[in-house]
Write the structure tokens for this entry.
Amino acid sequence: MGWLKHVWAMGMDCGGDDLSERVRDYLFYDTATSVCSSCLRRAEGKVIIRDDSVFMDKLCYACGKREEVLLADDAEYYKRCREVYVKPSEMPEKWNTPMKYGCPYDCGLCPSHEQHSCLTLIEITDHCNLRCPICYASSGPERHQDYRTFEHIVQMLDAVVENEGEPDVIQISGGEPTLHPDFFRILDEAKARPIRHVMVNTNGIRIANEPEFAARLADYMPGFEVYLQFDSLEREPHVRLRGADLREIKQRALENLNANNISTTLVATVSRGLNDGEMGALVEFALSQPCVRGITFQPIQEAGRSDDYEAAEERLTLTEVRRRIGEQSATFVVDDMLPVPCHPDSLSMAYALKVNGSAVPITRYIDDETLLAGPRSTIQFEKDPAIQEAVLGLLSTGHSPQSASHSLAELLCCLPELVVPSQFSYENVFRIIIMDFIDAHSFDLRSIKKTCVHIVSPDLRIIPFDTYNMFYRGELEQTVLEPIRQELALAGMALLTNDERRAVSRSLPMAHIEEVAE
């Protein structure tokens, strides 16, 4: 009983009238392994729910930094992502790196990862005709010599095919990929491989200024898509995010894409207080463009060049973006946007059917009573196996607009309330994606293991895009990651070979003992 007396003496007894003063102001939901946003060492965290918002409270035992990070402003949606919208992991054909130091310090992909590549980026240059204040690749005009060789890019394409067999989507990116002198040869090589869909990530300047360039892109249809940077309909967000007012450029680019009916997705980088008030307007604008098959919203990931970016003031979560779209759009509501099962924490998606000049969101036509059940209002899939399979098949970032049309058609067959066009094709598909890349603030090891958007590194590893920008891009692996790996090795917290252990031992400072003459 001595320990109990000690507790009472400290005023920590379990009785009394002041119980409310000792109850946390939050609900403890889970533990988390994160990284410190300052030193990037692994940090201990706990996931808590307060006032219907989800936070990660984390502490770094290396540098002492403690921070509380907003993960979601919708606790029920967050829990649905964690507890309901899950499916067995789909693996790549091969692994690329061994497990030595633990996630996220072994990326490549290592056997600890839990998802294959739904979409793989290949960056063919760091040169760009813009110098955007916000750029994860730190690209710009000054990097005019930074083109990967044609032979190197072919190796990168082959690396993806080797990992995936038949890759779902490959995105040719940069820098500004359309500036590469071998750009069309690279597209030819991509189309010659068993890749289901090829995307080009571009700011659209060449497409706007060179109609013949746009016309040539049309030769790669079908199975080809332009991923067009399109942040705003207003001047200020362009200047803040891209360093110039690009509204006229974007309009001309769309005119040329429409003229050639080139499948296009608009992609908007979004920031709190800058362009988060026009998400609905951007959706409606995208719906008005014949060539546009969808729009993707990407909250800023604090990585690379992020001039004057203040995460505490400008950072947006996936659920905040989802809420704003639903509140501002004249077509979609919040509940139209569902978690994507391959990586529900970071991806949300909604589909609409475009018919006779109007758009009808599909998810609202799946009877709520068959999707929602239980006192916690969590989603359960329809017991009808046809609808269950169609919904899971539709919600995948591995879809192109064309392949999505097939899954959407399968789903529509289960929903007799809708009239399906007799000539149903990808031109009838419109998709919203929210793609919230994880950075050091929101890092959750559980979620990182499910990332399905990957990038080919220069040495041909396949690395999750989120961790690539934190640890592996450019010189980061040497300047940031290697010191962390060395610390883990010296602490005996790495799975090393005997030779590697001996090398680590030799790096330890030796104590030199001088003989003292008697």
The two ends are 59 Å apart (CA to CA). Residues 1-12, 367-388, 404-419 have pLDDT under 50 and may be disordered. The first strand starts at residue 27 and ends at 35.
